[in-house]
Write a structure and sequence with these properties.
This protein has 7 helices and 25 strands. The chain is an alpha/beta fold. The strands form 6 sheets. An 8-stranded mixed β-sheet has the order 11-12-14-13-16-17-22-23, sandwiched between helices. Strands 2, 4, 5, 7, 8, 9 and 10 form a 7-stranded mixed β-sheet that branches. The protein starts with a helix and ends in a 12-residue tail after the last helix. About 20% of the residues lie in helices and about 30% in strands. It has 2 domains: about 160 residues, Acyl-CoA thioester hydrolase/BAAT N-terminal domain (Immunoglobulin-like); about 270 residues, Rossmann fold.
Length: about 450
């Protein structure tokens, strides 16, 4: 469905409901209050509880949210609600009648925010700046256009990536700057190497809030066109830096990565000692995109792709899922990552509506190889109707955007409601897995606001 079609469908839904709603005659109190509980300031991955008081009995209102990302792109959402007999509205209890989402969705105004232009990803990756969202309440029904006139009430939510006491340090490992996050307390703490295809501090800072020392590293440390091969030596250097840090426990390290970063995480565990736990999210079982070298020689060739299998769609973005060659094909054996050689514990998270990778098939193949090799330390979770961009929860769901490596607009997949609920579950699972596999004594400290 195209961006314009989405807007038309929303307008049709609205028109069907307006007749039922517009008969209300306002008898609202002049003192309308919008409360964000427990506080207007919270960690990025924490839910908030929005409540409105002082409305008229049964009053129909439009709830809105608006934010601007790091690149200046505006995102917004809107939903229609009816107050109860006491003039109150509770987003944890009351159902949205229509808008960018429907039903009881306490965080719906956040995850359903859409860019005002199509094919935009919500960029918020720098840990020092809070993600600021403006919530507002407006009289009557109008979800299609930017609000006209003043709001009945407003509140601003600051969603912070770094909790109190977490420290951030830029570390130069030679290729590009990496960022180290250390939780409050004396430690020792579990150490985690957080790999992102392109540099992002979001996941690393949020994991540090939970009691992990995290080094966030970009896999593509230059423009893709300038990278002739990737060097596993660079990521080994990052691992050894973490391993030797005085606040990191000595029982092994964790590595987490999604997409291209996921296959680098697998390679670290397969070729190098010291990796105790791997979180693989919607990635491939083979080396994608560019040759992988170690100590001056190629250890994995790139998995080939057939770009004639790109599937264009009517909204100007394409599906790339079916372009990648079969990693288990004999012709691709030199690109297949030998996970059967790894001794680490693995957590594989696969979204079943991923339109970038056939990640469930890749996951099942790796599980079979690991078990044939005698490694039963494997956990798998599949998320129906979730898409490729499985991230820490409560950010805007991204349907399509520019692929940073291919430089093409692609559809990522995922039904929005199911996808964002999967993000909540996956994020909790990641923390539980890393904590259980990388446990250190006296590491119960977590960062709070």
């Amino acid at each position: 469905m195209s961006f314009n079609d989405t807007r038309l469908d929303a307008r049709d839904t609205l028109n069907r409901k307006v007749t039922q709603l517009s008969s209300f005659e306002s008898s609202m109190s002049p003192q309308v209050h919008l409360h964000l509980l427990p506080s207007t300031r919270c960690l990025f991955d924490e839910p908030i509880h929005a409540k409105v008081a002082g409305l008229g009995s049964g009053q129909v209102v439009t709830m809105r949210a608006r934010a601007t990302d790091e690149r200046g792109v505006v995102f917004r959402s809107a939903a229609i609600y009816r107050a109860d007999g006491g003039g109150e509205l509770d987003l944890c209890r009351d159902a949205a009648l229509c808008g960018t989402y429907e039903g009881v969705e306490p965080m719906g105004l956040l995850w359903s925010m859409r860019a005002t232009v199509p094919h935009k990803y919500f960029h918020w990756s720098k840990a020092l700046s809070p993600h600021v969202v403006r919530f507002s309440v407006h009289d009557g029904v109008d979800v299609e256009e930017e609000e006209r006139g003043g709001a009945l009430a407003e509140a601003t939510n600051e969603r912070v990536l770094m909790g109190e006491g977490v420290t951030r340090e830029v570390v130069d490992l030679g290729k590009c700057s990496t960022v180290l996050f250390i939780p409050p307390g004396e430690g020792p703490f579990p150490g985690v190497l957080d790999l992102s295809t392109f540099m992002s501090e979001k996941r690393g800072s949020l994991l540090s809030n939970k009691g992990f020392v995290v080094l966030s590293v970009a896999v593509l440390y230059d423009k893709p066109a300038n990278i002739k091969h990737l060097e596993l030596d660079y990521f080994e250097k990052a691992l050894r830096f973490l391993q030797q840090h005085p606040k990191v426990g000595s029982d092994g390290l964790g590595v987490i990565g999604r997409s291209k970063a996921g296959d680098i995480a697998l390679s670290l565990a397969s070729f190098l000692p010291g990796v105790r736990a791997v979180v693989w999210i919607n990635a491939c079982s083979a080396n994608i995109g560019t040759p992988l070298h170690y100590r001056g020689r190629q250890i994995l060739s790139p998995l080939t792709a057939n770009l004639t299998k790109i599937m264009p769609t009517s909204d100007g973005a394409s599906i790339f899922k079916f372009c990648t060659s079969d990693p288990d094909g004999e012709e691709n054996r030199t690109s297949r990552i030998p996970v059967e050689n790894a001794s680490a514990h693995f957590l594989f998270l696969a979204a079943e509506d991923d339109l970038n990778y056939d990640c469930r098939t890749y996951m099942e193949s790796m599980v079979a190889r690991l078990r044939r090799a005698g490694n039963e330390n494997v956990e798998t979770v599949c998320y129906p109707r979730a898409g490729h961009l499985l991230e820490p929860p409560y950010g805007p769901h991204c349907h399509s955007s520019l692929h940073g490596y291919l430089r093409e607009r692609v559809i990522w997949g995922g039904e929005p409601r199911a996808h964002v609920h999967a993000e909540v579950l996956a994020w909790k699972k990641v923390e539980e897995f890393l904590r259980s596999r990388l446990s250190c004594p006296h590491t119960n400290t977590k960062a709070k606001l």
